[in-house]
Write a structure and sequence with these properties.
globular, alpha/beta
Amino acid sequence: MDLVPALEEPLKQPLKSVLGPATAKVMAEHLGLHSVGDLLHHYPRRYEERGQLTHLADLPMDEHVTVVAQVADARLHTFASAKAPRGKGQRLEVTITDGSGRLQLVFFGHGVHKPHKELLPGTRAMFAGKVSVFNRRLQLAHPAYELLHGDSEETVETWAGALIPIYPATAKLESWKIGKAVQTVLPSAQEALDPLPEALREGRGLLPLPEALLKIHRPHTKADIAGARDRLKWDEAFVLQVALARRRHADTQLPAVPRTPRPDGILAAFDDRLPFTLTEGQRKVSKEIFDDLATDHPMHRLLQGEVGSGKTMVALRAMLAVVDAGGQAAMLAPTEVLAQQHHRSITEMMGELAEGGMLGGAEHATKVVLLTGSMGAAARRRALLDLATGEAGLVIGTHALIEDRIQFHDLGLVVVDEQHRFGVEQRDALRGKGKQPPHLLVMTATPIPRTVAMTVFGDLETSVLDQLPAGRSPIASHVVPAADKPHFLARAWERVREEVTGGHQAYVVCPRIGDEEDDPKKAGRKKSAEDEAEKRPPLAVLDVAGQLSGGPLQGLRVEVLHGRMHPDDKDAVMRRFAAGETDVLVATTVIEVGVNVPNATAMVIMDADRFGVSQLHQLRGRVGRGAAPGLCLLVTEMPEASAARQRLNAVASTLDGFELSRIDLEQRREGDVLGQAQSGARSSLRVLAVIEDEEVIAEAREEAASLVAADPDLEHLPGLRTALTALLDEEREQYLEKG
């Protein structure tokens, strides 16, 4: 897909005369482009048609943009300043238009002379710069520009054809300079080695790779672009799916101990004492897991479930099945708060079955130990001994479980909660603690669209829990526009009081802790455009808690919870809240996953626009966990027309996490969602869009699976082997990192 031997020439040496060392350096440092192949795979983001103007009305804030537009007018102003006290300062203001909107360009000081001569009314040019706001108007300050003379031979040749490619660019290197560099290396495209098997390419009517590269960079028609994109999408989808298929294939070759529960063991005893019946979904998913556990190669399964769908129950039953079969099971949680919460809820659910080796413990009982980084030395020694002797059948902990000196007696199952918080290296380090590779169950409460599951978690089989257990209540969600309608915010605090008066509890969530001066990393961080526009930092837990206690929630028992508190203090706060000794918990997103307090019915999320869609959905899932209905209020100061408000309206309008994850994916850039979807990859997805290209991904997965089954080492496909090497560092193929 990416670098191929003929294209591995570094951009620095062979092209000194063309790119120059300075350009090659910028390409390497700012765009990650090091070789001719890298540059050929740096595709245009979009295309402008000569004679057609772009939409200035749709410019994104704070982003580097390239626009093609016409100068409407240009005015030179003089002013006095510290540098030019006698009124000799100069500012050139140029207004450009495209029919849909107008945009102001501004140049200062000595930088005004050249544009003043060249940017005359009626002139057409390409402009590149970062969109900022000044006096409530969008502007580009000191943009780079390239004049478009229809009759200039050089321009016509450089922008061959009627379509002008606009490349992903940086402030240091404009789109047209990248275009000129591409023009230089384009002849090398003929030597590109094709990763697609010929039969597959011809069967699907896809262009050969050299032709696709030529057409994506220098299209003559829109059909050229479509054909090239179709072909290059297939490359990305197919090479990634082959890497995943090879990992799945390698996993099936590993040995594992089959783990089958005894008919009269701890699992049967646990099921007998359950005060409710499992949902049909829980039974179906449990069967899939038990079937996997009974095989002699390791299970690799992803369990995704809606917030509150009972994933922990399904995981616990799988862990007990392994204890029945003589093994141990470990659950890995991303935070100490969550590990403690899981430990507490699992020992409560198991009752006397969790009292192995103790007086009063049940016949089939086992020990359930907690292992976290902040435990005291004596408790830790005891826990380690129980693990090494096999006395403890279940262990729940944070990544402290992965430390080298921790030994298991017979680790049979690893359950990883909230997979997106863990790298694959951590997951595999824990797997390496078994005498043979243990079975693996990965859980996530962030619903993942099918295509993302296939792309990011493609080496795992997937189970989905989409039914809520009986007794869960609906959650009403509303957007509270604090700036437009301040009385709505006052009413929100009244609603919190009403819930507390009715015997319930509430959460107030803020994006920030409030003692950030202790955190040098955040202090120096650049503000986003929205922050700049707001001119205020996000609301903080410590400030808001104080304001509420002394104001609208005076008289209520208010406590705070955040990630920088001592673990014992965090646990104490959670215990008091769970016991009903606190009315309102003001917290950061530390409560996002796993926290289960059925009596908490209301949640107010401050500055809700600062959170992502799935994060809001996760947070909202903390209420409505009991018999009383839940209420979630999304407080924002963003104006009604903003994208942030549309996002919040989407969250308020549906409780379907899968629907929200699609919206989330459509609104964010692909890369944010996939994270480092290919660890060690020299390129991320460029033309493949995981929502729109669902069919391509599904078909590529099928093709990849049958190809790898027939030829796991790809002996007959040198081009594909080369592309895989480019996608992954050789020794890290098994570490396709999950987003």
